[in-house]
Amino acid sequence: MMITLRPHLFANLGETHGVHFRLITNSDLVEKFHIADEQSYISTGIVKCDRPEEFPTILADGHLPRPLHVLVITPECLFSSPDSNVIGDKCKILVMPCNSTSIELTDIAHFLSVMEQSDVTKQKSWADRFFSSGEDSEYIDFVDDNTQTKARFSHISDQYEWFEQLGPVEWGGQQFCPAGEISVLPMFHGNYDPEKRLAINGQITLCGYPILNSGRPLFMRRDQERIYQELSGIKRLSIIATVKDGEITDLASNDPAAKPATDMLQAMFKVDSRYRIIWEVGFGSNTTMQVIDGNKAPNESYGHKNGCVHWGLGLTPWTQYHLDILCPNTKVVTSKGVYIAGDVKMNRKVAEACPCLVN
Questions:
Q1: Domain check: are 218 and 281 in the same one?
Q2: Whole domain around residue 207: which residue ranges?
Q3: Beta strand residue intervals within 8-160, DSSP E
Q4: In what order do the strands lie in the sheet with 91-95?
Q5: Is residue 260 part of a domain?
Q6: What confidence score (pLDDT) does residue 220 get?
Q7: Beta strands at 91-95 and 174-176: parallel, antiparallel or unpaired
Q8: Which of 322, 304, 305, 330 is nearest to 204 (CA)?
Q9: Measured at the alpha carbon of residue 53, what is the angle toward residues 47 and 55, in degrees to the nearest 5?
Q10: Does 7 sit behind a cis peptide bond, omega within 30 degrees of 0 on the bond before it?
Q11: Is residue 43 part of a domain?
Q12: Is there a contact between 198 and 278 (Cβ–Cβ < 8 Å)?
């Protein structure tokens, strides 16, 4: 399969005239890509990278021409974002997360198509409304009408940091793609503290699309796939999680068919109690995207019709896995009754990298 790459259609990179473009990918995939840019860029090219430690050298200012747009697609090695002072202020980087889960060429082609079609302006406007309504609210509620669950999040705290992976990329910036996510963690970027919690209390419904990401520790793909398959019952069935001060204290389901998924979550809790902690609440905003069935990391930015909540359990690299559960049926409502996500109708920071994966 040959994939045609059209970087001039990636609106979040901005103006292409007077700029160079490079795709960084694994040696095995170099011959699988063809770059068609309609003469927008000064030059285009493909750079090989097969080891994570090579990224800083490749991306360092002075190694590749500037100004430069970069797209990283490396299924065979985990991308680790270099410091901004390494890449300089004349480079923009997009990274397709495709090492923490398995990915096929057909998947890559799909997500590239999503990137071409994504409305960057619409996503940024959605994010501005989200933050405006959120900052004007005493709390936000997570509501699932199908299961009659509700949890309340006291979201205003100087202990939280909110990240954006959407909108135009600034010079010197980095962004995961397809773009389209707002997320909040109970701590500042890179400052891991196992005692920190998000102030969430009540019941949430786990029903949607699981994504089981693996971090740096050695692992077997077949074990990751086995765990994912056990959890995949969440796609069709609901598990009710009782949450106290940001930690899951109980799981329940009225459907016996949900037992494998429930048992697997309980097993993860037993092996490492940190999986009980809601480390992240994410809000996917990419309404252009269709979810690919399977364990695919780029699905995380799925925005359903008006934003899609996902719950993040586990935090790589401190836990072996980071589990995201996308829940399209969950609505997010402010204390004033405004639906800011999930209906059809805050220390804010532009993330330089994935906030849950640090060096």
A1: yes
A2: 121-164+179-350
A3: 20-25, 33-35, 43-48, 68-73, 91-95, 140-144, 149-153
A4: 43-48, 20-25, 68-73, 91-95, 174-176
A5: yes
A6: 84
A7: parallel
A8: 330
A9: 35
A10: no
A11: yes
A12: yes
Work out the angle between the directed axes of helices 259-271 and 221-231 (0-180°, nearest 10). Answer: 130
Closest residue by Cα to residue 107 from 340, 306, 273, 292: 292
Query: Cα(283)–Cα(285) distance, rounded to whole angstroms?
Result: 6
Task: Report the domain count for the chain.
Answer: 2
Specify whether 147 is located in the same domain as 217: yes
Reduced 3-state DSSP string for 142-166: EEECCCCEEEEECCCCCCCEEEEEC
Same domain, 33 and 139: no
359 residues of the chain, pLDDT tens digit each:
999 999 999 999 999 999 999 999 999 999 999 999 888 999 999 999 999 999 999 998 888 999 999 999 999 998 888 888 888 999 999 999 999 999 999 999 999 999 999 999 999 999 999 999 999 999 999 999 999 999 999 999 999 999 999 999 999 999 999 999 999 999 766 677 888 999 999 999 999 999 999 976 567 889 999 999 999 999 999 999 999 999 999 999 989 999 999 999 999 999 999 999 999 999 999 999 999 999 999 999 999 999 999 999 998 888 999 999 999 999 999 999 999 998 755 444 555 555 554 44
With 0-12 CB in 10 A as exposed, 13-18 as middle and 19+ as buried, what is 21?
buried
Distance CA 112, CA 285 (A): 17
List, edge to edge, every strand of the sheet that includes 247-252: 247-252, 239-244, 200-206, 149-153, 140-144, 331-334, 339-341
- 82 and 125, same domain (yes or no): no
Question: Does residue 183 sit in the same domain as residue 292?
Answer: yes
- Regarding whether 256 and 183 lie in a shared domain, the answer is yes
270 within some domain: yes
Residue 58 in any domain: the answer is yes
Amino acid occupying residue 28: D
Residue 267 CA to residue 24 CA, distance in Å, equals 38
